[in-house]
């Protein structure tokens, strides 16, 4: 089965065919860096990561670009309130966002362009649109895109814009324009822009780029005239992405995007997220509450990106158990007794699972079904291991290879391992307490042994007694510390 994606513009599932065989150009609409990104944002961003990972896993040469919007109304308002330049105001939020991405195990993009780094290209882009009669300069120096000049406007959303007061002057707008449908490419500078150092010279006077313009220029500059995939949240379909299509295709005369993918909004505790409802949650808040990154990642990937997903703390607890099950499974495979014997069903199970996993991911990046295939393998393999005392090493290797391969796409096990690692001082402490427990058991002081076990558990460490001695593992990274 080849990759199929649901293209918003086509409103249908179709085969993914990149413009250039074997190569994929992806542009993802990243955050506006005026505040910390919230967990709803990260449902979208983690989907971007899965797309990136699956394309590479499938053998494509991927160039992946995600922008950071550092100049718009929100960033300027925040900068003015803080008494800082827009560059100084947004820099910490941009750094924090990239840090959160790393904490959640996201692959690095090839480029994270910031709008303020592309002002010259934006001015040139607007000038081309004016030359081609797709844009005009208003009396106040702002520049607008003329929607009437682009007959296919509205096709992404599937709307007819001809009823939107075509030709009417809209006096109530912040800036003057000739038609209600037109949108700003370049906004004239006002006092707040100058105060925030967010105004630049142009042939039309001091001003700053419009938000829609920024993404077109950054994506075209970084990836070329035609993108294979453009990713974003469902709230960006109209007008943002609609406007990107119009201005980009009017400038280049070529198809701007071959496939548009949009992620459904996240609910938190059964409601739309908002600060007024008290359910506005950031990744950092969840980590401070003791939830590990792999559990957050698991819950956000547990539903298909176009399906509803209700993010809850109870759900995070369930995700923590699911991730721990993966870690335990991997540990069991690593410690499985191997030896000569008849072939087992492990290699066929591994092959069947990989086939089901690929089919799920090739079906419009269906992470829910992919996770189902993975955990189905865990159950089947555990049952097969329970039935034997030893298994051929190659058979175990087939399972471990399949697990590692699927984790290249899902990014759960590797992230869980990283979060559960401890420094040498913690490891030494655990080993010392395990020896103290063993000594207590030899003395038949079982009360002391139980107390030491509880002490170790309170540090987020689980211990398991077996024929080869006592093994331990981290179950709560936030608690796994000495002191």
Q: Could you report the average pLDDT, rounded to the nearest whole number?
A: 91
Low-confidence stretches: 165-174
Shape: elongated
First-residue to last-residue Cα separation: 53 Å
Strand content: 5-15%
How many domains, in number, for the residues? Answer: 3
Q: Which class best fits the helix and strand makeup?
A: alpha/beta
CATH architecture of the largest domain: 3-Layer(aba) Sandwich
Q: Helix segment count?
A: 16
CATH superfamily of the largest domain: HUPs
CATH topology of the largest domain: Rossmann fold
Describe the structure.
The chain is of the alpha/beta class and 483 residues long. It folds into three domains: 4-267, HUPs (Rossmann fold), CATH 3.40.50; 290-420, Isoleucyl-tRNA Synthetase, Domain 1 (Orthogonal Bundle), CATH 1.10.730.10; 424-474, no CATH class. It is built from 16 helices and 15 strands. The strands form five sheets. A four-stranded parallel beta sheet has the order 4-3-9-10, with helices on both faces. A four-stranded antiparallel beta sheet has the order 5-6-7-8. Helix 7 (237-252) links the parallel strand 9 (229-233) and strand 10. The longest helix has 23 residues, at 313-335.
